[in-house]
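Write out the 3D structure for:
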Amino acid sequence: MARATPEDLAPIAGRVVQTLALAAALFPSVEATVDAVDTARALSGAPVWVARRAGALVGHLTASIVPVGDHDEAWLSPDAWSYDALDDLAALYADAASAWRVDGVREHVVWSFDDPRWTEGWLELGFAREVRRGARTSPARPVSAPPGYRLRRARFQPTVAAALSALVDEAETGAPTFRRRPPVTDPAPDDRDGRWYVVEHRSEVVAQCLAMDYPPTLGVRTGTTHLSAVAVRPEHRRRGLARALVEYVAARERASVLDVAWRTANRPASALWASRGFSPVAIGLRRTLPG
């Protein structure tokens, strides 16, 4: 293994272009457009490891070191790595992880397109599925809320939104998810960044969904709307409110793609998004090294 040279950057960018093209062919919500020149330029300032076999480039790996709470994590996006064979990936990761370990980075997160041709290698190296991203391109389906409930877009109420978001944190820090990081209490969902949709019962907000414009991101189709902080108060669950709210939001957002992320161990969330036609697109894989 070796660090990339300036001559490696164009071939690496070419591999990224190929990855996006294949992903776009598999997933309708993925945007294949990527500028190879810009990609090579972005890589020029980062530590990039490369694998070669018989003089030919057969893989690359880089990462962003991101502060999360009280520790740093190494994040690898889908364009940050490639490999032709599992042994190439293993060697690349061994070199990179050794360098991160010296800097105290023990948490490694890989974002991969959700297909075995990308995930299998990381799973073999001890990573585990943690977060799934799903998307749907189909139009809204008419679903009505039960009698006594009202669906609407509302003026954002920070205290109410934070209380509902805390239900998601509660679900994801308990069994069977056991999320490592503490619940996020600040910031709460913010209408400066999105649109707040709610379900009301007797003038009380009992469910919410925040819809946000997805920022420009490699591989994400322009015009994608991201759904977040979907929660229903416990005493109002099992009445179809989440399904009705998602379809209500879909009808009013009219986005070409709806996108959402959830923890794979959160089984109610997995069931909800599958029932609303969201198909897996990407997966977040995590590995924690011993101290």
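The CA atoms of residues 207 and 232 lie 4 Å apart.
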